[in-house]
Each structure stands twice: as C-alpha cells, then as structure tokens.
Design goal:
The longest helix has 21 residues, at 114-134. The chain has helices at 10-20, 57-69, 87-90, 103-109, 114-134, 157-171, 181-187, 208-221, 289-295, 344-357, 402-418, 428-431, 442-460, 465-472, and strands spanning 45-53, 75-78, 94-96, 146-151, 176-179, 193-199, 203-205, 225-227, 234-238, 241-245, 250-258, 275-284, 302-305, 311-315, 321-325, 366-376, 383-387, 392-396. The chain is globular, with a radius of gyration of 22 Å. It is built from 14 helices and 18 strands. Strand 17 and strand 18 form a beta hairpin. It has 2 domains: 1-28 and 146-200 and 275-373, D-Amino Acid Oxidase, subunit A, domain 2 (D-Amino Acid Oxidase, Chain A, domain 2); 32-141 and 201-271 and 377-437, FAD/NAD(P)-binding domain (3-Layer(bba) Sandwich). Helices cover 34% and strands 22% of the residues. The strands form 3 sheets. Strands 1, 2, 8, 9, 10, 11, 17 and 18 form an 8-stranded mixed beta sheet that branches. Strands 5-6-4-13-14-15-12-16 form an 8-stranded mixed beta sheet, with helices on both faces.
C-alpha cells in the first residue's frame, strides 16, 4: 500500500474535508479583473480566406501565426462560448517543450524521429517566449523548468525510469540534472520525495487564462475578427471553399482550421480517435512566508510525480499551490457536461494526497476547486489530418499537454492547408494517426480496466497481461 492510499483516521479525514469546504467551485485563474469583455455573436454571413473553429490555444495560435505569415490573409475565428473558457483557460499552466507527452512516449512511438521532435519542441517553446515578449502578453511567464519527482508512494522501479530518461535526454544534448533524495529535498521539502529529474530549460509555468486573453488581443491587433457564442454546427463544401454554419450566421471560407479540443468534432470520422476525459484541480490560499520556508521551493519549478496516475503542481504568482491530476475520469459514451466539472469525491482525494506530500502545511485551506475536459487519444499526443480535398485541416488529441504544443499544432495545420513541406510535415509524427478507440460499451470497459491496471502497476511496478496486450497493439498507456 502506498502513502497516498494509506487509511486516514477520522480526524485526518475531517481535516482534509474542512480544507476544501469553502473552496470556490470555479477556476482560480478567472478571479482576475483583466478578463476581457465578450465579443459579438456572429449574426450575418461573413467571407474570409481562413475560418478557425475554436478559440482555445490551438485556434488562437492558428490565427496569430496565419497573420504573421501573411498579413493580408483575411481570418475569422469563432467559438461556441468565450475564448479560453474550456481547457485553455482552466489548466495548470505547465508549458512543456515536449511534443510527444514526454521523451519516453516519443521514444516508444517515434524512435527514429525523437531527436528532431525534441529539437522542434524546443524551437516551438522559444517561439512562444518570443511571441509573449513581442505582443507584451502579461501572463506571469517563468521559465523555471520542471522536476519529475520520485516518491515513496509508488514502486521503486519508477526511479529507474527517471535514470533512463536522464540518459536519453543527456544523449540529446539537453540540460538535465538527476537528483537523489538529498538533492531533491534541498530544492523542495517533502517526506515522500526520494529523487527527481530536473529538466532545466525545457519548460515554463504561466497563467493560462492571461495567456489566452493575451493571444486574443494579439490576434485582434493583427486584424483577426473574433466572434464568441457562435457555435459551428456544420461544415460543408461550398463551391471552391467551405461553408461553416452557426445558429445565427454563416462563414464562407477558402480554408478552415478545426481546433475544437475535446468537443464533438464536426468531422464525424474523428470521434473514433478522441476520448474526452475530465481532470480536476485544487488551489490553496496564499502561503505565508513561514509556510513557504517550510517547503523551500525557491526555484519555483513546476513539479510532477512520475507514475501512471500522477499529480502536477506549481506555485502561482501570489504563492498559492495549484495541485491537480491523478484522478482522471472518462464518463460513459464520452459524456460531457458542465456538471461534470465538479467532483467533490476527487477534490477530497486530492486534498488527502496534498497533505500526505506536504504535512507541514496542515493548516492550509483550499480557495478554489474545479475540473475540465481534455481531448485524449491513444498515442497521448497531438495528431493532424485534412478533409474536403485539403480545404479543412485539424489538430486534436493533445492529452493535457497542449499549453505549448498547440502552437506547434497550429503551425502544422497551416502548413497542411497551404501545401507547405517543412521539417515537421516530413515526419511520421505528423503524417501518422493514432489507433482509434473501440465503440461503446467496449471503450468504457477498456478505459476502466486500463485505469485499474495502471493503478496496480503504480504500486507493484509490474505491467499485467492487459497492459502488455495494449503495448503490443501500440496502445501502451502510461504517463
């Protein structure tokens, strides 16, 4: 039994519940006076060169990059709600350079391309940093790196995985540091820590909502027309272009970029490739100077433990701790609803895990608790495709690591629409697609069986027959 799963006495359990009792059930990031006003709803027929469907990171980066490449290109972006109201505005704010959900996943699936994919990922992160400076986006960007943490809560075999990643990343010329127990404790103090891998220049932390709002302002400054509360209900061929229909208007476009994340795709073929899963997050009240001193964390790195079911956590600009992950949930038939953004039983579990990790913060309470939906696919990283004889392109399947990779996804979508052959489009990573998920009820049963097996592997270090079978079919699930 791991430290996270150890039984709590009644007093501890009540203390954990008391800590979340007053938490506001919405994203901490939205408590910001700088949230922009909503844009108008589309109520007429517009014509443009490029219509972008979806106003999260992927859609906004598509708009910005499209105008940077060709300022004369006429671009319209529509969103079903408000820009950044879904995953892009409510995530943990981890901006990782990896395009493949980690080097291990990339090595497993694209062994011949891992060096070029890591290079492209770093270039992409550098481009994001440059854009933040160029457009003056105030989003609390800190390039502190990320530490993958080994703990007493999971199988000792995971530390060997850190060693393997360390060797792999060093061979690729990256700045990484392998930390033993004392080295890890010198950076961040937790009785559960046994080691870590600090990836020093490959990641940043950011206020995700402010990044969305900044990208919206940047796109509009470049001449992009943005319509909110304008849900695309249909796309169809329209002569030499594409017709996009919304409840009160239409868009006639020469080209369309789909950036709809986990929401039901307008191309029916895509529903077999994407599973919407819900992730949940807590944020503490601001820590006092004494509380901060008790945990160290002077470097303000992003942190993530390393099992299949993992936690991610970081400090905010005002020294709160954002704590999320672990209990990722798929609902039968891919159900999506705003009601599912609240899951008190998961918040209670996360609170318990938080106090196991940081018992010195026993008096801390949580100010916010929320959830959001993620577009997951069987290869755990973005994939692309085209439709309607190349007039439509899509990027989808970011699996929770899209804060940075969405810009790369946007650039590749534009390459596909414009017929540009680049270093990226020449890769199998871009050209191939993941294996589709099975239909219901097999999808739900398979995902539940996989979650149980992954949890068992976290505690024993052994992949059972079910996981080994998935490995053979290229569906090797891990973090």
């Amino acid at each position: 039994m791991s430290a996270f799963d150890a039984d709590s006495n009644d007093d501890d359990r009540q203390r954990h519940l008391d800590a979340i009792a007053d938490a506001e059930p919405y994203p901490y990031w939205y408590d910001d006076v700088d949230e922009p006003d909503s844009n108008p709803t589309l109520v007429r027929t517009e014509s443009c060169d490029l219509c972008i469907i979806g106003g999260g990171y992927a859609g906004l980066w598509t708009a910005v990059v499209a105008k940077e490449r060709d300022p004369s290109r006429d671009v319209v972006l529509i969103d079903a709600h408000e820009v950044g109201s879904a995953a892009s505005g409510r995530n943990g704010g981890f901006m990782e350079s990896s395009l493949t959900h980690g080097v291990a996943n990339g090595q497993e699936r694209f062994p011949d391309e891992i060096a070029i994919l890591e290079e492209l990922g770093l270039e992409n992160l550098n481009e994001i940093e440059a854009a933040i400076k160029r457009y003056g986006i105030d989003c609390d960007y800190e390039r502190t790196g990320v530490i993958d943490v080994a703990t007493t809560a999971h199988s000792p075999s995971y530390f060997q995985e850190l060693r393997d990643d360390y060797q792999q990343l060093r061979s690729l010329g990256q700045r990484v540091e392998l930390l033993d127990r004392d080295g890890m404790q010198s950076l961040v103090h937790s009785p559960t820590y046994t080691g870590g891998l600090w990836r020093k220049d490959r990641a940043a932390i950011v206020d995700p909502a402010r990044l969305v709002w900044g990208l919206k302002a940047a796109a509009e400054s470049l001449g992009v027309r943005i319509y909110e509360h304008s849900k695309a209900t249909n796309i169809e061929r329209d002569g030499v272009g594409v017709l996009v229909t919304t409840p009160l208007g239409k868009v006639r476009a020469a080209r369309v970029a789909l950036a709809t994340n986990a929401f039901p795709p307008l191309l029916k073929r895509l529903k077999h490739y994407v599973a919407p899963v819900y992730d949940y997050v807590l944020v503490t009240e601001p820590l006092t100077p004494d509380q901060l001193q008790s945990i160290g964390w002077a470097g303000r790195q992003g942190l993530s433990d390393i099992p299949n079911q993992f936690h991610y956590y970081r400090l905010t600009e005002d020294n709160r701790i954002l704590w999320g992950g672990y209990d990722v949930v798929y609902y039968f038939r891919g159900k999506m609803s705003s009601d599912l953004e609240q899951r008190p039983e998961t918040w209670a579990k996360l609170a318990k895990h938080f106090f196991t990790t940081f018992p010195q913060l026993e008096d801390v309470k949580f100010s916010h608790a929320w959830g959001g939906v993620i577009d997951s696919c069987s290869r755990f990283c973005v994939f692309w495709g085209k439709a309607m004889q190349g007039r439509v392109a899509y990027s989808i399947g970011y699996t929770g690591l899209g804060v940075a990779s969405t810009r790369f996804g946007a650039a590749v979508s534009l390459d596909l629409l414009d017929g540009r052959r680049t270093k990226a489009t020449a890769t199998k990573f871009v050209q191939d697609k993941p294996l589709p998920f099975p239909p219901e009820p097999f999808r739900f049963a398979g995902i539940q069986a996989t979650r149980w097996a992954l949890d068992r592997e976290d505690h024993t270090g052994k992949r059972n027959a079910w996981l080994r079978t998935l490995d053979r079919f290229g569906l090797g699930f891990d973090s």
